[in-house]
Request: fold
Amino acid sequence: MNRFSRRSWLKSAGLAAGSTSLWLHGWDKLAGVTLPWETETVLYSSNPGIIKLSSNENPYGPSEFVRKTMQSSFDLMCRYPAAEIQRLTEKLAEKEQVSPEHILITVGSTEGLKIAVLAYLKNGGEIVVPHPTFEAMPNYAEACGAYVHKVLLDKNMVIDLEAMRRRCNADTRMVFVCNPNNPTGTILNAAAVEQFCADLSGRTMVFADEVYIDYITEKNYPSMTSLVKQGYNVIVARSFSKVYGLAGLRIGYLVARPDIISRLKKMQIDRPNMMALVAAEAALTEKEFYQFSLAKNSASKKVITDTLDTLGRKYIAGHANFVYFDTGMPVTVFQDKMKSEGVMVGRVFDPYPQWCRLSTGRTEDMPALKNALLKVLS
Ligand SMILES: Cc1ncc(COP(=O)(O)O)c(C=O)c1O
Reply:
């Protein structure tokens, strides 16, 4: 049976169909909104030896230093984390060169995506998103009763900014730009994305998901925090789940104008937990692990792309911790074949039924992955 089937997504969409607003129809719809990695838990737990390349995690984290810091923090766990939130907020403000009022720490960047929906789309309205992209925001928006415009990528699988611009109308409350995009790993032309976000923010809120920004190899590539600093209607999301290797702790943050941050903060259900805050603060100080993660990512990616070259497969190496490629068969079939070889791969993303997203994983696992790919795809 295919455990990665789209049934749960369709169920979410079905639950949302015809709804008008979260407040009219209650919270029950939100219970049906599954996160991509939630569907994998059973398979992973029952196959602990499996090479997991399905959720774009960084398997090297947490670093030794972060582990030690967490271990020596147990005495803090009986306390509420007010001081730790404040401290990390200040450190992030310093990192992003903004004031602490520009920062909101969230439970993974996923919470950031969702509270933005609650703040700007809970009473209906429309959101424009690329398709395919990371689905947490469009799915949550649908569940909250918003209308989601899904704008197809262009022929190179890059976000089509002009088509997105054309899709905006008087009811558009938010535009979502995922850069680098998941699942394709593509980035936008630097000047074009800046222009797009600046222009559109005059008409609607622009949400820039920059969770994979650390992996961009282009020199001096801009973050949309530059627009935040100039006072535009832009929200930027970042995460500790990727290069910092803390996905299980669920911690990320938003950068936006202070009045926008205040509005978003009101939508939070709770605050991040003490352990995550302590770990994130330690992770920020550690340049060595950051560089190590990037180097390991490049090394693993090279094994994957070299193997795909050998096999003559089309792929996008991308600017993230995954490779998106044409398997030449339905992804569901590919998943099962790779599972038999001990590898969990990404799920299918509409409308590319044969393209699969493969996370980079540990370099130690790459020989086994290479063998599996050669066997399944030859
Ligand atoms: C583009 C993008 N945004 C956001 C997230 C959510 O990350 P997290 O909630 O772990 O910070 C992911 C996770 O894979 C992602 O791919």
Remarks:
- The chain has two domains: 25-61+288-377, 76-284.
- Confidence is low (pLDDT under 50) at residues 1-31.
